[in-house]
Design a protein that fits this description.
Blueprint lengths: L6 H16 L5 H41 L4
């Protein structure tokens, strides 16, 4: 898994993997490989979303601190 991949890139790749799996053209062995790849991509996307959520929470805390200190 390329950890430098953006969330959007991972999502696009996941969509391609799902389309391939839905095509019905894969052997069982290939289906399992694609399934594992999909799992890795989904996990990566969730990690990225959790990171963004943490950043948003931190920013909101700083905004609240500024509000509570009268903008000082």
């Amino acid at each position: 898994m390329d950890n430098k991949m953006t969330l959007e890139q991972a999502n696009e790749k996941l969509e391609l993997v799902v389309k391939k799996m839905e095509s019905g053209e894969l052997s069982l062995e290939d289906s399992m490989k694609y399934y594992e790849e999909a799992f890795k991509l989904i996990s990566y996307c969730y990690e990225q979303l959790d990171d963004f959520k943490g950043q948003i929470i931190d920013i909101n805390k700083r905004i609240d601190e500024i509000k509570n200190n009268g903008g000082k």
